Each structure stands twice: as structure tokens, then as C-alpha cells.
Amino acid sequence: MIIAMSPLGEVFRTRLRMFPSLVNCSTIDWFTNWPAEALTNVAKGSVSDPDADMRLEGDEDACVEMFKIMHQSVEEKVEEFKQSMRRITYVTPTSYLELLSSYKKLLKAQRTKVEKGINRLGRGLEVLKTAAVEVDKLQRQLEESAPVLAETQIQVEKTKKVIAEETTKAEAIKSVVVVEEEEASKQAAEVKEIKDKADNELN
Fold first, then answer.
1. Do the domain assignments include residue 60?
2. In this predicted model, what pLDDT tens digit does every residue of 91-137 receive, in sequence order?
3. pTM above 0.70?
4. Which helix (H) or strand (E) holds 5?
5. % helix, strand, coil for the chain, step of 5
6. Which domain, by its residues, includes 32?
7. What does the pLDDT look like over 147-169, one tens digit per residue?
8. Are 46 and 52 in contact, with CB atoms under 8 Å apart?
């Protein structure tokens, strides 16, 4: 079934929604490009669709105008291509609907990406805030402990001096002990020698 018709209007869009088989079971020949009004109406219907949840708010009219300009610019380039290369390229209403569908998908994907980034940034800021509180707390504790640390440092220095002095004394005593140990070992050897000699004589 081949249906030749004029550009889509509001009534025909309503019929397409009521009877989707008009699209699924039909071949439609478009003999003329969509006028600006039709492009605008279709874009508005797509943008204002509650199922799409596009949330454009004040940018809705600007987006509709953007869709229209993009499609018309492609139509102009197709005509230039036809004149320069002698080849015909078709820009169908499906192309326009694909443009609207692609914009919805891209918008949804980018919003999801941005929302994830916002959530990640929010969590990071919370961690930084908690860390700043902990650092401030530790800083106050350090300031409060500064006098105690200074006193401890003085005691440590005194203790180091005492240890150094004791070490010097211990080294001196050690050297004396080593000499006495050597003398005692020498005497022990002499005593053993005498003992061994006396044992031999006794035997």
C-alpha cells in the first residue's frame, strides 16, 4: 500500500498514535520536504512527551528551533550535493525522527553521567570535610600538648647526658676489669702449672 501525502500535521500525528499500523504496514512516499511548521510541531510533540522526561524547562523552544535548523541545513546540503555531484540523496522524515530520538538518548546518557559525577563529587567533599575536622582536632591537641612535649624534650636531653656520663665511666671500669681479668687469667695459669707440677711430684 503506497500513500502519497502532504507533510505531517497535528491531525496526522494523532492518527499515527492511534493507528501505529499506518506506519508499520505502509510504505509512504514523501514528495516534498517538511515545512518549518511541521518540523516545529513534530519537535514540540517529541520534546513535550511526558514519557521522555527531558526536563528542558525554559530551553524547550530553543531545542525545537535547533532541531528545525539542523534538519533544514541538511536538506540544503543535499540540494547542493545534487547540483554539484549530480547525485540524489534523500532526507526522509525518519531522519528527523531519528535525530529527535538520538537527542533524547544522548541527553539521558549525559544527564546520568553528570549526576554520577555530582554524587561522586559530593561524597568526596564530605570526606574532605570530615578530614578537615579531624585535622583541626589534631592540631588543637598538638597545640595543647606542646608544653608537655617541650618538658619531655628537656628531660630526654638530661637523660641523654646522664647516660653519656655513665657510659664513659662504664668504659673506664671495663678497661680496668679487662686488665684485671687478663692478670687473673695469667695467675690462674701459673697456679695450674704449679698444681700440675706438685701432683706429678706427689705421684
1. yes
2. 877 888 888 888 888 888 888 899 999 999 999 999 999 999 999 99
3. no
4. strand 2-5
5. 80, 5, 15
6. 2-91
7. 888 888 888 888 988 898 888 88
8. yes
Residue 42 lies in a domain: yes
167-202 b/e (C-beta count within 10 Å ≥ 16 → b): eeeeeeeeeeeeeeeeeeeeeeeeeeeeeeeeeeee
Closest of 100, 81, 98 to residue 90, by C-alpha? 81
Q: Does a structural domain hold residue 25?
A: yes
Residue in the block written with cell 698444681: 195
Mean local confidence (pLDDT), 57-69: 84
132/129 Cα distance (integer angstroms): 5
Residue with cell 505502509: 26
Q: Is residue 65 part of a domain?
A: yes
In a 3-state reduction of DSSP, which class is residue 203?
coil
Whose cell is 510504505? That residue is 27
Q: Are 34 and 7 in contact (CB under 8 A)?
A: yes
